[in-house]
Specification:
The chain is of the alpha/beta class and 729 residues long. The chain is 27% helix and 26% strand. The chain has 18 helices and 37 strands. It has an eight-stranded parallel beta barrel with strand order 1-2-3-6-8-10-13-14, surrounded by four helices. Strands 17-24-25-28-26-27 form a six-stranded antiparallel beta sheet. The chain has a six-stranded mixed beta sheet with strand order 19-18-20-21-23-22. α5 runs parallel beside α7, α10 runs parallel beside α11 and α15 crosses α16. The longest helix is centred in the N-terminal third of the chain and has 33 residues.
Length: 729
């Protein structure tokens, strides 16, 4: 019964259109069985507090209990997949010789002071970050084979991470000699050594992932299975900010890699950055850029991306109010990417619905999740299955604006000359635009060689301060884009010490002092331009133009007026591109019947945008009808537009999984299931008030009907099993 009802659940969780209306048929349910749009990860077997009603349960870890955990979730109808860490995990059997009789402790990441880098602990054993050898890859393959034999439908290798501060272990020195054919150099000894160390770290984790993906593909060939492979990873922006090297964009070119999970959440997005000279947390804006860079990682590559949201975060000492406010900010930011409609709704749901966290910022006063937050979360989880909408409409500032970013941003974060500690060389260009309602997009430099990748953009910003192109090929694509009408704004003073590292622009017959010079040459710009002392130049190139500001973009974030010239150049670029330059103090996006909106602080002066209509704010656990929405600074809204619905009976929102929706005459029935002992609510479109409501043949007394709005709210307590809800009108 559980399995049948879970497959019916793939019809839809929450349906504001016609999917859960009276026209729903059994045949429609069958055609949607393979649709997976939401997932979660857990290291525990099935439980009532983990049963959040997503399509997929991802069993975490490759220990000996994996098979039992997989079976427990499958028995309750979930599609089951597997995730494990690629850089760290409970891998003591490998480190201490149980796996092959050899100690591998020299493969632990180590800094220049001889300190081994720990991720945490597993029972009484420490968990360390690995410098991955091919032998470690063999070890991971052994564990992955255990998961494949258990019947998992996909494999996730998360967080391939090599800390910038590390690179001093004997294992790393051995890899250096094998890769470069020369003696190891301490990474902090020169910018060239730091650059080469980071390139090696980048390669080692790409090699590891390819090794395991090859193992999975071999299993597929032998068995006829179709197990997919994904990499859950932080965004490039976060890895740069936290000083971690990871393969990022290169993973899309691995054989057998089907995509990513974008691990963006409060913990990453609350990292402070600088704007107008003030360093502070800007969770919404940072998350907006993080999700944006992850979407552009896969765009046009044929790979897919899932967006992670976390209702709390790894730091257990914030209070519930903080978790909730920041989750709403990151969730809202994720919904501003209409190309993405797959979500990991929660890592570790057991710690969300079963954990104790501070109340009112008092560390010792730890409480379980507030009931209204538990309800709100489940309403949103269920709604996320409906984000694949053909009707997409922006209300914002000028679109088609991007900031180019490269994986090499990670290569310039260590001693002796690290790039700006607050990443102002990137945020200094992006934040002034986003704060004015421009939905600016981080654009992956390595991907611009893909045909038509740059077609959505009219204006691109570029600096080589803090990053470098990893090959000349992006320059060919960028020059072609400019000649065809694109406007490139270059902010660079050519003073980055990493211009001098041994790389393609100064070797094999090329003798450029900076990679910018190679780019300008390819656009036909001569040395007179390169050597100009003017602070701000505009040079026509074919049908497009280059605007060059001789300035490090980090300076733009240093003061309240630091970005004035950048904004002036942006307006000029828009006029050259034949595009109107528009600024707003909010962002708003319609996705079918859903509206996502954010009022911006630190923005332009002006009146607040006001929406008039009939809305349900899905961040309101009571699901009250709102006639007027004010987009004040700092506000976040996830709205359901009631005016987009007809009169047919339908489920508009629910804090439980709804399946088997059926209308027979004046009788309506469905099955409901949610996290044990959490308050549930269902909002129904109903033309008449109910005569009776029952749940598993027991009368439901708590409900409300609005004749004016033709809406019915039903309240009950969730249980982690399907129960039949019956309504007679």
């Amino acid at each position: 019964m559980f399995r049948t009802l879970r497959f019916l659940a793939l019809l839809v969780v929450l349906c504001p259109l016609s999917i859960l209306a009276a026209e729903t048929s059994d045949s429609q349910a069958e055609t949607n069985q393979a649709d997976e749009r939401t997932c979660f990860q857990t290291s525990a077997p099935f439980s009532g507090i983990g049963d959040i009603g997503a399509d997929v349960a991802i069993a975490y870890g490759i220990n000996n209990e994996l098979t039992n955990r997989v079976q427990s979730w499958r028995a309750h109808g979930y599609h089951v997949q597997m995730m494990t860490g690629s850089a760290w995990g409970g891998y003591g059997d490998y480190l201490y010789g149980k796996y092959d009789g050899i100690s591998h402790t020299n493969e632990i990441q180590m800094d220049r002071h001889g300190k081994l880098d720990r991720h945490g602990s597993h029972g009484s054993s420490a968990i360390y970050y690995m410098c991955p050898s091919t032998n470690f890859g063999n070890y991971l393959c052994t564990g992955v084979k255990r998961a494949l034999d258990a019947g998992v439908e996909a494999v996730y290798l998360e967080e391939p991470e090599f800390w910038v501060k590390n690179g001093y272990s004997e294992g790393f020195k051995r890899e250096w000699r094998n890769y470069y054919g020369e003696d190891w150099q301490p990474p902090h000894s020169s910018v060239d050594a730091e650059w080469r160390a980071s390139k090696l770290k980048y390669f080692l984790y790409r090699r590891l992932l390819q090794q395991v993906f090859d193992c999975v593909q071999d299993f597929n060939r032998r068995t006829g299975a179709h197990v997919q492979c994904y990499v859950p990873t932080h965004s490039l922006l976060n890895y740069v900010h936290w000083r971690i090297v990871s393969p990022e964009s290169s993973l899309a070119r691995l054989k057998g890699c089907d995509g990513y999970i974008a691990q963006v959440w409060t913990g990453t997005s609350r990292t402070p950055n600088k704007y107008h000279g003030r360093l502070k947390e800007r969770t919404f804006e940072t998350a907006f850029l993080e999700y944006g860079v992850m979407q552009n990682l896969v765009r046009a590559t044929g790979r897919s991306v899932w967006y992670l949201n976390d209702p709390i975060e790894d730091n257990p000492d914030h209070d519930w109010t903080d978790y909730r406010r920041n989750w709403e900010s990151t969730l809202t930011a994720s919904l501003f990417q209409p190309e993405v409609s797959h979500y990991e709704v929660a890592p570790w749901p057991e710690r969300v619905f079963g954990g104790l966290y501070p109340q009112n910022i008092i560390p010792r006063n730890r409480k379980p999740i507030p009931p209204d937050y538990a309800t709100e979360l489940q309403v949103v989880f269920n709604s996320l299955r409906e984000m694949k909408q053909p009707d997409v409409q922006w209300d914002c500032g000028t679109t088609g604006v991007g900031v180019l970013v490269s994986d090499s941003l990670m290569f310039e974060r260590g001693d002796p000359s690290p790039s700006d500690p607050d990443m102002s060389h990137i945020y200094g260009m992006a934040m002034p635009l986003l704060k004015r309602g421009i939905p600016v997009t981080p654009v992956q430099l390595e991907n611009i060689v893909i045909p038509h990748y740059l077609d959505p953009f009219h204006i691109l910003f570029l600096t080589y301060d803090g990053m470098k192109p990893l090959g000349m090929e992006p320059h060919l694509a960028l020059a072609d884009w400019v000649k065809r009408g694109g406007i490139l704004i270059v902010c660079d003073d050519d003073a980055d010490p990493y211009n001098q590292v041994r790389e393609w622009w100064n070797s094999d017959g090329l003798h450029y002092a900076t990679p910018r010079q190679d780019l300008f040459e390819r656009m036909g710009l001569g040395q007179a331009v390169n050597q100009s002392s003017q602070p701000y130049q505009t040079i026509r190139v074919g049908d497009g133009a280059v605007l060059w500001l001789h300035e490090n973009p980090a300076q733009m974030a240093a003061s309240i007026h630091g970005d004035a010239r950048l904004r002036e150049m942006a307006r000029h670029a828009a006029s050259l591109a034949g595009t109107n330059w528009t600024e707003k103090n909010y962002l708003m996006l319609r996705r079918g019947p859903y509206m996502i909106a954010a009022g911006l602080d630190e923005s332009i002066a002006g009146t607040n945008r006001i929406l008039q209509g009939n809305f349900i704010n899905l961040f309101d656990s009571a699901l009250k009808v709102k006639k007027r929405i004010i987009l004040s600074p700092g506000s976040r809204f996830y709205l359901l537009d009631l005016d987009r619905f007809g009169a047919a009976p339908s489920v508009l929102a629910s804090a439980c999984r709804v399946t088997g929706f059926k209308v027979e005459g004046k009788n309506l029935s469905m099955f409901v299931e949610g996290v044990t002992n959490t308050p549930s609510i269902i909002l129904l479109k109903a033309a008449t008030p109910p005569q009776s409501i029952s749940l598993d043949n027991k009368r439901v007394r708590k409900f409300k009907y609005s004749a004016k709005d033709q809406l019915l709210w039903i309240h009950f307590t969730n249980e982690a099993k399907p129960r039949k809800l019956s309504i007679i009108f």
